[in-house]
């Protein structure tokens, strides 16, 4: 495919993370050869036939250039989500950047909740229990691995 726009003007280092169950953060860096007045805009679709939405809350750098987006109320579907970042400049055409992302792969899990420790001094043992963390997507049969560090004082 032929990409219209000046070479080196598309964004770089695009990445997204989902955290706190329904928040998503995406960040990027301006293209290294992009003109100084370049402004970037992020659009995304949660699924192939979902509606295209523009970022509602941009993260800006010191030059008021959009370098990220914060999303609220994100839910993870079964399809890959589509992200597109295009740019505009008075001086030249800006190349776009696009990527398909499996949202469940970028979710940063919450810690387990309701942790209880019951120790029996006579039997010299402890029972530690917890609830698995809430997750944004609905795969109930996922396998979680936990690591427990016990420090004796």
Automatic annotation (TrEMBL):
GO MF annotation terms: cytokine receptor activity
Type I cytokine receptor cytokine-binding domain mapped to chain residues: 13-106
Keywords attached to this entry: Glycoprotein, Membrane, Receptor, Signal, Transmembrane, Transmembrane helix
A cellular component term, taken from the record's GO annotations: external side of plasma membrane
Location(s), subcellular: Membrane
Topological category with respect to the lipid bilayer: Single-pass type I membrane protein
Top-level lineage group: Eukaryota
Any matching Pfam family: IL6Ra-bind
Protein's UniProt name: CSF2R factor
